[in-house]
Automatic annotation (TrEMBL):
<keyword id="KW-0732">Signal</keyword>
<feature type="signal peptide">
    <location>
        <begin position="1"/>
        <end position="21"/>
    </location>
</feature>
<dbReference type="InterPro" id="IPR046925">
    <property type="entry name" value="WD-like_fungi"/>
</dbReference>
<protein>
    <recommendedName>
        <fullName>WD-like domain-containing protein</fullName>
    </recommendedName>
</protein>
<dbReference type="Pfam" id="PF20493">
    <property type="entry name" value="WD-like_fungi"/>
</dbReference>
<feature type="domain" description="WD-like">
    <location>
        <begin position="68"/>
        <end position="269"/>
    </location>
</feature>
Length: 270
């Protein structure tokens, strides 16, 4: 299910360090995350993959995209989340996987981990919403509630069952969106790392994240990272609040046309 790093043995120890330096069980680790009781002080850079394509298609119908993130600041947390997700898969804890995948997609940013945050609620709702009909799949919500290790997750999924107006689909034709909003200051910090960066990027993962902001793009390409600057800067300026969620269509990355997104997760262009 997973590739890239050997992460299972590292996962619990890494989380214990961030959660009041206590050795936590798997269940306690998920509970601490879902409650938001994790303070991360890491600034490590690296790439982590979470591969889910073809795994438990019936139980995870809306989580079937392999996800790789090149994080500029949160490698240890992403490694921890991937390890916990692998553990959840072995236990058949589908609700936990949905949560951990969502947290991973948002760069493991601590401000988004609590299940009551708008960002996490939106992501969990996406996982139980039929994208064609726009209706909540109550059976799926009940499945996830019954296979969650944390009471906070159970309550979150049970609460989402009653949602009658799910979030709209992302990226229809608008440039700015109200879905998957990232804090502009986080995006400005990310942009500073991108601007003038002549490092070559090729293939996947198709995302770069820092704090709670991610730049992602829709197709594999070979380019220098600084080529992401103009579209990201446009998004920050075009969306006129302190938050931003935006897609720019037809961005040329040194010969390859892509759709480029700026949002609070690495799955913005899907």
């Amino acid at each position: 299910m997973f590739k890239g790093r050997s992460i299972s043995a590292l996962a619990i120890a890494a989380l214990a360090t961030t959660a009041q330096c206590q050795q936590l069980s798997y269940e306690d680790s998920v509970t601490a995350l879902a409650y938001g009781n994790v303070a991360t002080a890491s600034s490590s850079e690296g790439t982590v993959w979470l591969n889910v394509t073809g795994f438990a298609v019936d139980q995870l119908p809306h989580i079937q995209n392999d996800l790789g993130i090149h994080s500029l600041d949160n490698l240890e947390m992403l490694t921890t989340l991937a390890g916990l997700a692998q553990n959840a898969a072995s236990k058949g804890q589908w609700g936990d996987i949905v949560y951990l995948y969502s947290a991973f997609a948002m760069n493991g940013y601590s401000d988004y981990l609590n299940v009551s945050t708008v960002e996490m609620q939106e992501s969990l709702l996406d996982a139980i919403t039929d994208q064609d009909s726009g209706k909540v799949d109550v059976d799926l919500a009940e499945l996830y509630a019954s296979t969650s290790s944390s009471k906070f997750l159970v309550e979150a999924f049970q609460g989402l069952k009653s949602k009658t107006n799910p979030q709209h689909k992302r990226w229809l034709r608008e440039t700015c969106s109200s879905a998957n909003l990232a804090v502009k200051n986080s995006c400005r910090s990310l942009l500073e790392n991108v601007r003038g960066n002549i490092t070559w990027k090729t293939g996947s993962p198709r995302s770069i994240c820092k704090y709670g902001c991610c730049i992602s793009w829709s197709a594999n390409a070979t380019f220098q990272i600084e080529n992401l600057t103009n579209a990201a800067n446009y998004c920050i300026n075009a969306c006129g609040t302190s938050y931003v969620s935006c897609e720019v269509y037809g961005v040329e990355l040194q010969g390859t046309l892509v759709d480029q997104c700026l949002s609070n997760r690495a799955t913005g262009c899907r």
